[in-house]
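cron nightly-structures :: item 1 of 1
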Amino acid sequence: MSSTIQQILQQIRHTVTHKNLAKKELMSLIQKNWHKNKNITDSLNFAELFNWETFDLWELAITMGSGDNRKWVRTSGYDYSNLDDAKFVISSARNNKIKYPQQWTHSFIIKGITHKKGNLLVAGWNIHNAQMFYFNIPYIAYKDNKTVELVLEQFTSNKKIKYINKPFTGNVSHKHCKYWEYECKSFEDMLEAKYIRKKRRAA
């Protein structure tokens, strides 16, 4: 087996591992509020959640953590009765310039927001340090955009770097960039739009 194929397989295993880690994190949020949602849990077997997709788990976690504040409706334009929409994303990396110097970016990219009508409730899993980030992004902040990008890390390289060997540290060095003002410290704070930074830029 060639070294390139070995590296590709290693990258696939790395991604799968982190998807599973993120899934466990989401399931712990669901389990925390399991006893408070008998109307939902009576129809669920916790073990079956292992087979759910991460975005489904995220929607359920929000539903169970919100109580009567958000009813899960999952309809065109929003996921909840108050028009909020759930977004789960795993961080990704890319090279923005083919020619030297290369410009590498590691970020959360949120798509499918064109027809949304309310706040984006975002869970972002950083694959380089196995950490979940939470955001509550107001509609007014993204309504004129087709995507939302939260930059975690960027660097420039004058040497050729293969995608599968991208040397990101996992540290978040770009919290001064757009949308980071809507970061929340915890899942519970995200549900109530309690932001880490008290003074936020105008949208």
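cron nightly-structures :: done
Strands lie at 72-75, 78-80, 85-90, 92-95, 102-110, 120-126, 131-137, 148-157, 183-184.
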